[in-house]
Amino acid sequence: MKQRIITAIIAAALFIPFVIYGNLPFTILVYVIAAVGLYELLRMKEIPIVSIPGIIGLLTVFSILLPEKYTIKLMDLTSYSKLEFLMIAVVLLLIYTVVVKNHFTFDEVGFILLSALYVGIGFYYLIETRNAGLQFIIFALLIVWTTDSGAYFIGRKLGKKKLWPEISPNKTIEGFLGGIIVAVVFACAMQFIYPLTDSWIALIVITIFASIFGQLGDLVESAIKRHYDVKDSGKILPGHGGILDRFDSLIFVLPLLHFLQFV
Questions:
Q1: Which helix (H) or strand (E) holds 63?
Q2: By the 8 A CB rule, do 63 and 252 touch?
Q3: Which positions, given as ranges, span the membrane (predicted)?
Q4: Which residue, 8, 24, 197, 241, is the most exposed by fewest CB within 10 angstroms?
């Protein structure tokens, strides 16, 4: 626990200034974080990031991450959209399976493309949420952190019924519900300090959905790790694991906030 707290403090001290400042430094940081996230996924499948498939996957992530304002400029220069860059990646990876005589397989092509979409889309919305306004990224982080803390402490104190033991044995239904309640309480407190919307009902409903999706994102990452028989996605954050172990919930919450047109 002591190591987790120390790592969390140091990570927050490094990450929060970038969040507050935003702009290009924040975008560059997200690119670095996303690259590490892709590396962690490929390592589970034993695909080197420094390889032709790994580099194609990385370039795919980078193209997905490109903020909207730069995407327009890129289309003016190349006439290609993000979807067309994704199609190019698909074709190149499939050709590579032929070149190496199926030592790199169709299944691995699918893994790289899905990994690139999983990481790329989630972190793309991290950039776009910050570009929409500091208050929105603070709201998203608040929901994720309070849900995680609420689920952990309430689950330890009151948890009896297992939520999904085949995927994450330690999570409980009581913790799941407790995380939602704590998130709603903190979201309402933020609404008092800095109103995000005119409708309290909308705020509460969105917070509930975001809290649920955040916990589902955590479960998805747990399912991936269990499938590939790894405890943590990485070791970059002592006591916490890897980048995906810390951003798994946010990867699900941020797109949801945009799809609900809250951001």
A1: helix 52-65
A2: no
A3: 6-35, 47-65, 85-102, 109-127, 133-154, 175-194, 200-220
A4: 24
Residues present in the chain in total: 263
- pTM summary value: 0.93
Token pair of 153 as six digits = 């402490």
| Dihedrals phi, psi of 123, to nearest 5 degrees | -80, -25
Query: Which residues lie below 8 Å from residue 9, measured CB to CB, with a gap of 6+?
Result: none
Contact 203, 212 (CB under 8 A): no
User: 3-class SS at 168?
Assistant: strand
- Name the β-bridge partners of 7: none
Helical axes 134-158 vs 200-227, angle rounded to 10°: 70
User: Are the C-beta atoms of residues 184 and 227 closer than 8 Å to each other?
Assistant: no
Tokens of 91: 């074709």
Q: How many Å apart are CA 23 and CA 19, to the nearest integer?
A: 9
Residue 137: left if φ>0, alpha if ψ -120 to 50, beta else—which one? Answer: alpha
Q: pLDDT truncated to tens, each residue of the chain (263 aa)? A: 667 778 778 888 889 999 999 999 999 999 999 999 999 999 999 999 999 999 999 999 999 999 887 777 666 677 778 889 999 999 999 999 999 999 999 999 999 999 999 999 999 999 999 999 999 999 999 999 999 999 999 999 998 899 988 888 889 999 999 999 999 999 999 999 999 999 999 999 999 999 999 999 999 999 999 999 999 998 888 878 899 999 999 999 999 999 999 98
